[in-house]
Amino acid sequence: MVKKIIKSYDFSLILVVALLTIFGLIMIYSASMVTAIQRYGVESDYFYDRQKLHIIGASLVFLFFAVFPYKLMLSNKILVPMVFLSLFVLGAILVFGHVAGNAQSWFKIGPISIQPSEFVKVSLIIYLSAVYAKKQSYINEFNKGVVPPLLYLILVCFLIALQPDYGTAAIIVLIAGTIIISSGMNLKNIFRLGILGLILSIPIILILKDKVLSKVRLGRFEAFADPFSVEQTTGYHLVNSYLAMGSGGIEGLGLGQSVQKLGYLPESHTDFIMAVIAEELGIFGVSFVLLALGYIVLKGILIGLKGKDPFGSLLAIGISSMIGIQSFINLGGISGIIPLTGVPLPFVSYGGSSLIQLSIAMGILVNVSMFVNYENKYKNKKPETKAVQSENLSENPFYFRK
């Protein structure tokens, strides 16, 4: 049985995640060498060494969730404490949190920084997937099957918006929307939810209008419209991102040869790491990242479609949508397709909270994939039909036809 379970793991998915993470580590070292010395006054390999520790921790977390049976998370003994803990942590950060990047989104303990909202993404995926899986028999009863799970979503988004971190709140809403659309409820209820969401968002925007419409956030839209007109102010990040990507061309300038990382491109090892990849490795480096991320997203969707368990299918789709949405927002921001929001590129950007959260999600996805493959290959293997049995019997010399 153990051999069958091991054979059921999707090692191609594990390999792609490992390669992308290792590639990210190499690029973090390249992108952060000068920043570490000039901006932070530390050794050139400071962020590289810290990311190695993040990867070790993330690997252990990944292995745990890859072998932990995901169906156990359907239990209220796990779901209820997870929900209350996530709400408690998001509330506590508003009091004890550390401000960074204009948002009070971090717990800082010595050299260690933790961003709880990253982990809440996974808890929300687990919760919505579990609840809507349990409500399949009455999924289209709006007041009973559709609305109750969304109270958790509303509270989470409100607490994150108070930090304020509207980028993460928007990502969570989009992830939840993907799970809801995939849950099996009819289009009428999905439309009603959309209207309800718009109605609820109006008072939140009015309450937080000073933060929503702050100069920093309005400046991002100004930079999005025409970054070169505000090149020395709000458009500085985007203009230097353009210069990095444009100078890389097809072949790139070579690993470690980026010019924009020499103090011109802020956050070169986090939000703008893809710009450095484009400058140093050209279209080949960019293509590798896009293909790897695309493979993970599509693989997750296929796992969801192949699965017969609603909970596992919704988990797979929720996790793959999270990675796809974050990737689009990061890449869209640095290329000027959408306004900048400060979202890291999955598996590639520097950051412990992001990497560990992604490792939890990927561990769950790999575990779901293992169960799907195991059930399809072994548990649900159909016995030979009568026709096949007869054919086999006819090959027996002691079998006589009547």
Automatic annotation (TrEMBL):
Keyword match Transferase: yes
The UniProt record lists the keyword Lyase: no
Membrane-spanning segments: 12-33, 53-72, 79-100, 112-133, 145-162, 168-185, 190-208, 281-302, 314-338, 350-372
Native source species: Cytobacillus spartinae
Reaction catalysed by this enzyme: [GlcNAc-(1->4)-Mur2Ac(oyl-L-Ala-gamma-D-Glu-L-Lys-D-Ala-D-Ala)](n)-di-trans,octa-cis-undecaprenyl diphosphate + beta-D-GlcNAc-(1->4)-Mur2Ac(oyl-L-Ala-gamma-D-Glu-L-Lys-D-Ala-D-Ala)-di-trans,octa-cis-undecaprenyl diphosphate = [GlcNAc-(1->4)-Mur2Ac(oyl-L-Ala-gamma-D-Glu-L-Lys-D-Ala-D-Ala)](n+1)-di-trans,octa-cis-undecaprenyl diphosphate + di-trans,octa-cis-undecaprenyl diphosphate + H(+)
Membrane topology, from the record: Multi-pass membrane protein
Alphabetized InterPro entries for the sequence: Cell_cycle_FtsW-rel_CS, FtsW/RodA
Record protein name field: Probable peptidoglycan glycosyltransferase FtsW
